Amino acid sequence: MTADGKQLVTADAMQIKDTSGLPPGLHLNLQSPSLDVPQRIEIPLKYILNGLPTLSGTHMVYLHALQINDKETFVYYGKTKRGWMKRYIEHVKLAMKGSSREFPGLYGNAIKNRYNQLFGKPLDPSGQVYTGSYHVVCVAGLNGADANEVERYLIKKHSLSNAQGLNMV
Q1: 35, 59, 102, 109: which could form a disulfide with 166 (CB 3.0–4.6 Å)?
Q2: What is the pLDDT of residues 67-88, one digit of tens each?
Q3: CA-CA distance, 163 to 109, in Å (whole number)?
Q4: Residue 13: what pLDDT?
Q5: Phi, psi of 3, deg, nearest 5
Q6: Which tens digits make up the pLDDT trace of 148-169?
Q7: Which secondary-structure segment (H or E) carries 123?
Q8: Backbone angles phi, psi at 38, to 5 degrees
Q9: Contact between residue 32 and residue 39 where contact means Cβ atoms under 8 Å apart
Q10: Closest CA to 61 of 73, 75, 40, 72
């Protein structure tokens, strides 16, 4: 806490023993100011260090994981050439507009329920409230065919075979 009562934002560099086989990454722990929920962003360090080849014009595969009611985590894998944050913003816009697709549909309803919860209004019948999320750049710098292959593998392994999977492929 700062002298004027504001929360101090810090960063730590550490090695966690159970991730010793994984490449180093940047983990950003944030708090959504409008929804008052935790958010985490994970990016492999090699994609942000200076002096490495540019990712411009290449594809990346990403994960968006939505935490609902502090109990369930729903996963969505995707690929983009535009950058994952730009693609995430497109997902959020579609979610807020309303969609019958699983990922934006759940996300939009859960965000609206979070707003209702914050302002003391009744929740919609689903009762699904957005309580946090994490976003991961799984891999970047791929050509289109390789990105398609990685995305298909992750969707098949972690989304289509899982009740909390939101991919429809």
Answers
A1: 102
A2: 999 999 999 999 999 988 899 9
A3: 18
A4: 58
A5: -60, -30
A6: 999 999 999 999 988 999 998 6
A7: none
A8: -75, 145
A9: yes
A10: 75
Which is more confident, 26 or 101?
101
Token pair 């999320």 is found at: 133
How many whole angstroms separate alpha carbon 157 and alpha carbon 143?
21
Spatial CA neighbour of 107 closest among 83, 144, 136, 135: 135
Query: In a 10 Å sphere around its CB, with 0-12 CB exposed, 13-18 middle and 19+ buried, how is residue 121 labelled?
Result: exposed
SS3 category, 158 = helix
Query: Of 125, 134, 74, 131, which is closest to residue 104 (Cα–Cα)?
Result: 74
3-36 confidence digits (pLDDT tens): 666 665 555 555 566 666 667 788 888 899 899 9
Question: Contact 139/60 with Cβ under 8 angstroms?
Answer: yes
Q: What is the pTM of this model?
A: 0.85
List, in order, residues 6 or more apart from 155 with CB less than 8 Å away: 77, 165, 167, 169
Tokens for 102, please give them: 């699983």
Instruction: Give DSSP secondary structure letters for 32-74.
Output: -TTT--EEEEEEEGGGTSTTSPP-TT-EEEEEEEEEETTTEEE
